[in-house]
Fold:
Amino acid sequence: MEKLLCDLHIHTKNSDGDLSIREVVDLYGKEGFDVIAITDHLMDKKSLKRRKELGKNLKSIFEDNIKSYFNEINKEKDRAIEKYGMLVIPGIEITENTRGFHIVGLGVTNYINPNVSVKNITEEIRNNGGVAIAAHPVNKFSSGRHEGNTFLWDNHKEFREYMDAWEIGNREDFFAHVAKEGLNYVANSDLHSKNNINSWKTVLDCEKDVESIKKAIKNGNTEVMFYNGKSI
Ligand SMILES: [Zn+2]
Ligand SMILES: [Zn+2]
Structure:
């Protein structure tokens, strides 16, 4: 069995990505990926309020349009398997810029409330059949991002039981300290535009179906690699 090349953290026009879901599928399908996850931002209400006051675009999916988001992923999922043999997993990224953390809910197909405790968010993700991934602790790294999302990572001992994995690679940045403590890990592009595709990726040695993939991540059967467009 060949290993699966996966990118489990991708944004589209449904939040602040440049590409539509369809364009993302074609991009990764042509690159020969085995598995991708669409994980658009779902922002907490205080952050949304701040952005509104500043006159900024909201760049989030909402409780009232999340159904059409998941429907669109579903349609593309069928096309992706047929055309490229590529599995598309639905998801969301809880984007909590008030307390300062991002959690990818991989495999969820329902609204997850971002305005509750970390424990309740991850319980809701798991109750929805999803996997909870502590996303990038980025504050200021090579990719130039500046919002501090270090809350979970600064307190990883407290939150380790709530998280199924930690995103130690994100774009070109690498955050190894939790891996040294034996926590499960993945690595992803956090794609917002086409050129983010050359970045960290997750490699899995399992069957190409959602249940096997979730199990591999929960069991810590993951590898990471830096993908530069010609590695596989
Ligand atoms: Zn994020
Ligand atoms: Zn993201």
